[in-house]
Amino acid sequence: MPSSRYINTPLTRSASPAEWRATFRAGQPQSHTSGLAERHVQGNVVILPKAWADDFLRYCQRNPKPCPLLAVTEPGDAALPSLGADIDLRTDLPRYRVWREGECVDEPTDIRALWRDDMVGFVIGCSFSFEQALMDEGIRLRHVDQRRNVAMFRTALPTVSAGPFSGPLVVTMRPLKAADAVRAVQITSRYPAVHGAPVHLGDPALIGVHDLSRPDYGDAVEVMPHELPVFWACGVTPQAALLQARPPLAITHAPGAMLMTDRLNHELAAF
Amino acid sequence: MPSSRYINTPLTRSASPAEWRATFRAGQPQSHTSGLAERHVQGNVVILPKAWADDFLRYCQRNPKPCPLLAVTEPGDAALPSLGADIDLRTDLPRYRVWREGECVDEPTDIRALWRDDMVGFVIGCSFSFEQALMDEGIRLRHVDQRRNVAMFRTALPTVSAGPFSGPLVVTMRPLKAADAVRAVQITSRYPAVHGAPVHLGDPALIGVHDLSRPDYGDAVEVMPHELPVFWACGVTPQAALLQARPPLAITHAPGAMLMTDRLNHELAAF
Description:
Two copies of one chain form a homodimer. By secondary structure, chain A is of the alpha+beta class. Chain A has two domains: 15-24 and 32-127 and 239-265, 3-Layer(aba) Sandwich (PSTPO5379-like), CATH 3.40.1640.10; 130-237, PSTPO5379-like domain (PSTPO5379-like fold, 2-Layer Sandwich), CATH 3.30.2040.10.
C-alpha cells in the first residue's frame, strides 16, 4: 500500500482499527480508509429510520451477494458490539453522506446531531476484505497497482425487490488471467460475507455491460488481451437501491470512507 | 444415463462396482464403463515394468492435475486393496490395450498372460467423478446430454518431465455459461484427486488450442455464444507421455473402459 495514503495522519501502518476510529471520533481528517489496518474487515454503512429499515433488511436478506450483512444495530443504538466493543456509528467513520429524498445534502464527519432513537444502522461487507485475500495469495489487482478506485458497472440483472427497494445489480470488475480467475473464484468463495464468488466472467454484454472503458462508478481499468473481466456483486447495489427509494432521510459512509471494524478478514473465511 | 449403455449385460443400474468387476472377470463383454455405478470412482489404469514405473511415478507426482494418483500397486501384485478388497488388475477391466514401443498391439479383455512379477499398476483419477458432482449440482454437460465423448485437446502447456516421460498437457473442454463456470470451479476444486479445478477458461488460443471444432481426442461439442469453454487437465496426458516414451511394454485400460472401484465419488471431496 502506498505510504501517501497515510499522509494526513500521525498514525502508522501498524495502527489498530480502534486507534483509527478514535482519530476519526476526535475529528482527525481522513479522505478514505483503503489500505488502513488492512488485515481487518471494513464495512459499508447505511443508516435509516426504522420505518424504512425493515424493508431494507429484507432487501439485504434477499440479495446476499451484493448486500452481505455483517451487523445491524438495535433501533436508536449506535453500538455494534460484534464488530468492535467501542464502536459508535455516529462518530467513528471519517466522513458520512446525508441523503434527503435521494439527494445528497451534506458530507459531515459526525452525525450525532442527526441521530434519532428510531435510527437503525446496517454494516454491509466490502470487497476490501476479499481483495486483501486475493493479494495475499499473490494475485495482482491492476486498480490497486495503479492506485485507482475499482471499476463499477450497473448491470441488466435485477435484484430481488423488498418494499420500496429495488434496482439493478451493480458489480465491480477486475481483469485477471484465466488461471488467476480460477484461483480468484476459489479464494472469494471462502468469503460469502464480503460478496463471495464472482457473479460473472467473460463477455460483459451477457450481463448488460456494453463498454468496460466507461464504468458507472469508480475508475476505468484496462483489460489486456490475455485477460478475462471478472465481475463481483458490489456494495454500491444497496446504496443505489436506497437512493432510488428516496427515503426522507438516509445516512451512508462517504465513498471509500468505511467503518473500520476489529474483525479480521480471515475470520470471515468460510473454510 | 441412457439405458442403452447396459444393453450388453444382465446387470442393472443398481449393480455395485464389485458386481461389475465380477462380470468383467468372467469375460462378459462391455464396451465402456461410463454411467455404470455412477456414484463410484472410476480410474484410468497404466501398468509398467518396474524399470519404467519409478520414473512414471515421479512424472505423476510432478503433474498432479493431469495425473492424480489414486493408488499404486506393489510390484508384481495385482491387488489394490484401498480401491476394492477383491480387485485383480489383471482381469477386472472390461478391456485393455497392450503397447509395445508405443504401438498398440492388442486389445485383450484379460492380461494374466502378460503379467510379470515386476509389473506395477497405477490408477489415476478420472473426470467421471467430477462430472457426476457437477451434474448432481444441476450443471448440464452438453457432451453427456448428446451422448458423446468429451472433447480433448493437446495444449501448448508442457508438463514437468521425469526420466523419459514428458509431453504437453492434454485438457478436456466443457462449454458452460459463466455462472455455471463459477459453480464448476467451486465444485471441482473439492476434487483434487480427479483433476480438481479448471486449468483454463475463455480464449483457447492462450493455451495453444486453435480450433475447438477439431479435438485431438474424443468428440467435438459446440460452444454457444453465451458460453465459455472451460478446460480441465485430462488423464490422457499421462497416457500421451507414456506412448511418447515408448517403453518396451505398457498396458492401459482401453478408452472408456475404466477400473471400477468401491470408493464413492464423494469420499474424494476435499471439503
